Amino acid sequence: MIMKEFTFLHYNPKLKKYARQLRNNSTKSERELWKYLKGRNMKGYDFHRQKPIDEYIVDFFCPKLMLAIELDGYSHLLEEYQKKDRRKEYQLMQLGVKTIRFWDDEVLDDIDNVLRVIEEIIKEREKELEL
User: Domain limits of the chain?
Assistant: First the structure.
């Protein structure tokens, strides 16, 4: 079931401090993408960095669209990380959150294409959520 109006997603309060640390120590790719997402720059939508949701922290989150954006480095090629990523995506999906992923290199080497994909996903979410 898709929620038409987002109010609040619960999160583990213990993650709040760690999320703040992650925001203060962003990766190069996170800083680069944030330039385009902050201040409602992306089609007027409000995005948050390092947002706790449930038992996870997502790199970027738009509450109105229920959209999470994750940036992955090479560690995510390891099987243990892939299992964790699948579990995280599944749990977020159960909460109505759509997750899209990009490799760090994609953001750093082809930001125009990354932004185009995000804009396409936003259009899809607008239709799905009837915004």
Answer: 15-128
- Residues 6+ away with beta carbon under 8 Å from 51: 19, 57, 58, 60, 61, 68
Q: Count of CB atoms within 10 A of residue 16's CB?
A: 12
State the Cα–Cα distance between residues 48 and 52, nearest whole angstrom.
Answer: 10
| pTM of structure | 0.89
pLDDT in tens, 57-70: 999 999 999 999 99
Select the CATH number that applies to the domain covering 15-128 from these four: 3.40.960.10, 3.30.70.360, 3.10.50.40, 3.60.10.10. 3.40.960.10
CA distance 60 to 6: 16
**Partners of 49 in beta bridges:** 60
